[in-house]
């Protein structure tokens, strides 16, 4: 398939290794990967602050970067940004062209589970990982059934990862409680955000896993800062890095 | 919904109050754990019913149906109440509610009123009003009595004294009820409160309760308690009053059954509260009054998104699951009702303009809610309303337009982030920390890469 | 304009789309409702007595009255040592009340009691200990079924009682015996 990458600003600027792993793994799976030019912020920091006027310019610029791009899917290795992009594109542009872009948007795990499943992994991943099921991915993108919901359960993240040879998947206590990043919340509500992050980092460390693995780079960046401050014997990895290492 | 904030809550921004709450980390852990236990009990109770999600859907639909036909159901309710010998009063706001209550009590020369838990009367600040009129008000729910004796407002809508340790309750009871000094056993303290409150029930001139559901086609109100305090009150003195928001109406008994099945399960994990009492008229020779209160609710119904917050049945489930509430306490919200539902129904009158931001938008509350109130959506909407009114906290009003322009410009973003990455790489953390604000205060700063992903892509995959 | 009228007027412009009242078609769990009832009654701190019937209950009450306990019964065929007093307040020293329930609910351990069988409405709350008597064939599966069978005529009072009164308001520690009865025994006849 021909895949256009949606690389959110945080990944582009601060976590390029997540973008690189995404490119490499998609190419290993036989896809053609392109990076449409002119990508800006999805507008989430502004809309989540209530500032829709301020979000409009950057959202529409990002949308324009994808309009008319010839591809089968637009894939993003960041669940929260993807959700915001979908919502904000819809908010500011009701055109069929905008809808065509929205219809092609996939979060990476979602893409690898629903659209182009991985036939087989070639290499083992000899580590125990503790899954970080971030909020927007599970509660807005249905990547996994949230703990509050009863009835049949799905977990696309685990479904994709468990096919990797030798991998051991565990979960932290209160496994889908928010890590406390929350965008500008981390700055506006510094004390509560830090306490949530500390609790989450410790919960991951208590599993004895070598890595806390997630699909949302912003949560991982926050947890990484917490783990290093607490000097916890665990590191963060993005799901793309784990999958790439096993292909 | 009232603009008359309790002074005990005060108006400082949520973040500040939360920061103070967070200074005692052991207590935060204790508070968070106590509430998470309720969430776990809720999960077990919900999981025991295969029809749980169906009940949530039915609860949501029946509440929406009622809200969109509220005028019809309220009139039907009133008519049926009158047929049952119940007197009905209407109050447009908290002030009028309090005046009506006082008038009813004054007409019977009531000196002492026993009251069971009612978030509505908290919202209307009834107690201080009646006390100023010389009427003694005794809150009879144990948690409510504890905080009343301590001179505090509730910190949770179902377990109002959840923030207090048993030793603190022991000290309070020693001072106020004469229990043994140093005694803190919950059984001992509860028995002492039972003995103390029994005398109050027996000597009260009137009783007042909140209402969990008001059944339109029967003209009856349902009151749920575990302690039996509402019924001990309402069934001893000859005068009983019940205050209800207009949103408490349900069409019929079938609707009430749906909500009764989820209410206690979602609140505490019990299959049903100990007592679910249906009052369809006064006791022999008694007098029963129902006061129907608006106090801002009709205004919320004018906004499609805010309207859904009136589906709430006050189970408190959203508070228990909220990671922010558990770590910031019930007194940080500048409103009588804390947590997600408190933000949803209280943000309009939040003069600190900060409570809609006391939320990570994680969405757990919306999934916990037994009537599917879309709390995260409502909170997000409140932020937009605040922004539109030019009422933004935390300096957002000045920096958000800058961020908006900055984020929309790849050139600016690329140049400045390149500088930032360099700074993060070359400068020692001790120099950077003072500049990195709340991030670096609590976390290590990110390990900065040498170049952006786009630079890598163009170099390695560029044509 | 009266407050009633201003509220009703404001309700003419609700922003939510009209929505039909849903149909309540929840499937009941019909396997062994008595066993379900017992399990749930235990969960809410009540105790079920399935054997012995009215005779065993009367024998138990006779023991209690012999010990000087104050027992009031509003149940046919069960005799205590106290009659329904003139005022509700005179029930303050009642140790045991024996009251018939109209029906019981398997899913939550609750029993419906109507004021016709109470003497004074406060009886099941003010007594120190409560005995509820129910017929085995009145146990229904869930609240949807129960709610359509309860008696709640004009002017009446009725209550679902699930266990003895309880509270966990002090540090989440469960204490049985708050303001209502401190124990609940249910007799199946």
TrEMBL record, chain A:
<dbReference type="Pfam" id="PF02754">
    <property type="entry name" value="CCG"/>
</dbReference>
<dbReference type="GO" id="GO:0005829">
    <property type="term" value="C:cytosol"/>
</dbReference>
<protein>
    <recommendedName>
        <fullName>Cysteine-rich domain-containing protein</fullName>
    </recommendedName>
</protein>
<feature type="domain" description="Cysteine-rich">
    <location>
        <begin position="132"/>
        <end position="224"/>
    </location>
</feature>
<feature type="domain" description="Cysteine-rich">
    <location>
        <begin position="3"/>
        <end position="83"/>
    </location>
</feature>
<dbReference type="GO" id="GO:0016491">
    <property type="term" value="F:oxidoreductase activity"/>
</dbReference>
<dbReference type="InterPro" id="IPR004017">
    <property type="entry name" value="Cys_rich_dom"/>
</dbReference>
From TrEMBL, chain C:
<feature type="domain" description="LUD">
    <location>
        <begin position="89"/>
        <end position="189"/>
    </location>
</feature>
<protein>
    <submittedName>
        <fullName>Lactate dehydrogenase</fullName>
    </submittedName>
</protein>
<dbReference type="InterPro" id="IPR003741">
    <property type="entry name" value="LUD_dom"/>
</dbReference>
<dbReference type="InterPro" id="IPR024185">
    <property type="entry name" value="FTHF_cligase-like_sf"/>
</dbReference>
<dbReference type="InterPro" id="IPR037171">
    <property type="entry name" value="NagB/RpiA_transferase-like"/>
</dbReference>
<dbReference type="Pfam" id="PF02589">
    <property type="entry name" value="LUD_dom"/>
</dbReference>
């Amino acid at each position: 398939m021909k895949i256009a990458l949606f690389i959110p600003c945080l990944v582009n600027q601060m976590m390029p290794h997540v973008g690189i792993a995404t490119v490499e793994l998609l190419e290993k799976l036989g896809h053609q990967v392109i990076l449409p030019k002119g990508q800006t912020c999805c507008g989430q920091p502004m809309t989540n602050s209530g500032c829709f006027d301020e979000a409009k310019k950057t959202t529409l610029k990002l949308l324009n970067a994808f309009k008319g791009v010839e591809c089968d899917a637009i894939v993003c290795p960041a669940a929260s940004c993807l959700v915001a992009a979908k919502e904000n594109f819809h908010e500011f542009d009701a055109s069929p062209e905008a809808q065509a872009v929205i219809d092609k948007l996939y979060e990476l795990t979602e893409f690898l589970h629903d659209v182009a499943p991985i036939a087989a992994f070639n290499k083992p991943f000899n580590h125990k990982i503790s899954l970080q099921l971030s909020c927007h991915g599970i509660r807005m993108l249905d990547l996994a059934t949230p703990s509050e919901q009863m009835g049949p359960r799905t977990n696309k993240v685990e479904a994709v990862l468990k096919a990797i040879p030798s991998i051991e998947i565990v979960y932290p206590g209160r496994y889908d409680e928010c890590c406390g990043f929350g965008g500008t919340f981390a700055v506006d509500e510094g004390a509560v955000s830090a306490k949530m992050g500390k609790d989450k980092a410790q919960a991951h460390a208590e599993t004895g896993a070598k890595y806390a693995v997630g699909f949302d780079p912003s949560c991982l960046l926050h947890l990484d800062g917490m783990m290093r401050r607490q000097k916890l014997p665990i590191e963060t990895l993005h799901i793309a890095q784990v999958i790439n290492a096993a292909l | 919904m009232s603009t008359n904030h309790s002074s005990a809550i005060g108006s400082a921004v949520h973040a500040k109050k939360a920061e103070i709450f967070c200074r005692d980390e052991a207590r935060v852990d204790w508070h968070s754990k106590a509430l998470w236990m309720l969430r776990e009990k809720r999960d077990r109770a919900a999981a025991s019913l295969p029809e749980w999600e169906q009940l949530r859907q039915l609860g949501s639909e029946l509440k929406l149906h009622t809200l969109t036909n509220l005028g019809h159901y309220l009139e039907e309710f009133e008519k049926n109440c009158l047929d049952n010998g119940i007197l009905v009063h209407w109050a447009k706001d908290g002030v009028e509610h309090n005046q009506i209550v006082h008038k009813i009590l004054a007409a019977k020369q009531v000196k002492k009123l026993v009251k069971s838990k009612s978030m509505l009367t908290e919202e209307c600040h009834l107690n201080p009003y009646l006390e100023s009129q010389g009427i003694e008000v005794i809150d009879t729910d144990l948690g409510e009595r504890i905080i009343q004796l301590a001179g505090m407002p509730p910190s949770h809508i179902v377990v109002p004294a959840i923030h207090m340790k048993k030793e603190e309750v022991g000290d309070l009871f020693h001072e106020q009820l004469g229990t043994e000094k140093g005694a803190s056993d919950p059984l001992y303290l509860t028995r002492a409160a039972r003995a103390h409150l029994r005398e109050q029930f027996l000597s009260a001139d009137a009783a007042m309760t909140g209402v969990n559901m008001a059944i339109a086609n029967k003209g009856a109100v349902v009151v749920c308690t575990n302690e039996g305090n509402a019924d001990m009150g309402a069934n001893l003195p000859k005068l009983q009053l019940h205050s209800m928001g207009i949103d408490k109406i349900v069409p019929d008994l079938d609707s009430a059954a749906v909500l009764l099945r989820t209410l206690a399960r979602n609140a505490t994990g019990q299959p049903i509260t100990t007592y679910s009492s249906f009052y369809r008229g006064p006791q022999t020779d008694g007098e029963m009054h129902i006061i129907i209160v608006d106090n801002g609710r009709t205004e919320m119904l004018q906004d499609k998104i805010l309207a859904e917050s009136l589906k709430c049945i006050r189970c408190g489930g959203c508070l228990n699951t909220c990671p922010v509430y558990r770590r910031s306490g019930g007194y940080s919200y500048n409103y009588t009702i804390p947590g997600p539902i408190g933000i949803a129904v209280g943000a309009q009158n939040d003069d600190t303009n900060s409570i809609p931001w006391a939320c990570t938008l994680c969405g757990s509350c919306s999934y916990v809610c037994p009537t599917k109130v879309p709390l995260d959506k409502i909170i997000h909407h409140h932020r937009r309303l605040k922004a539109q009114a030019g009422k933004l906290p935390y300096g957002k009003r000045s920096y958000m337009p800058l961020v908006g322009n900055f984020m929309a410009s790849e050139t600016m973003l690329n140049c400045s982030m390149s500088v930032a990455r360099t700074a993060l790489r070359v400068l020692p953390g001790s120099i950077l920390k003072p500049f990195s604000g709340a991030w670096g205060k609590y976390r290590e700063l990110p390990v900065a890469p040498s170049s952006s992903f786009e630079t890598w892509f163009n170099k390695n995959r560029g044509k | 304009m009266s407050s009633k009228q201003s509220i009703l007027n404001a309700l003419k412009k609700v922003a939510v789309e009209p929505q039909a009242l849903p149909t309540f078609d929840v499937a009941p769990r019909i396997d062994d409702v008595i066993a379900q009832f017992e399990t749930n009654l235990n969960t809410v701190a009540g105790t079920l007595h399935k054997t012995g019937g009215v005779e065993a209950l009367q024998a138990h009450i006779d023991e209690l009255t012999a010990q000087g306990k104050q027992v009031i019964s509003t149940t046919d065929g069960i005799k205590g040592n106290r009659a329904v007093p003139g005022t509700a307040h005179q029930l303050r020293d009642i140790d045991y009340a024996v009251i018939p329930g109209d029906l019981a609910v398997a899913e939550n351990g609750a029993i419906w009691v109507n004021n016709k069988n109470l003497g004074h409405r406060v009886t099941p709350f003010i007594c120190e200990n409560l005995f509820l008597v129910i017929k085995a064939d009145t146990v229904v599966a869930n609240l949807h079924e129960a709610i359509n069978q309860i008696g709640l005529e004009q002017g009446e009072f009725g209550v679902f009682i699930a266990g003895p009164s309880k509270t966990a308001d002090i540090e989440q520690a469960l204490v049985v015996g708050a303001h209502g009865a401190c124990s609940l025994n249910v007799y199946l006849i």
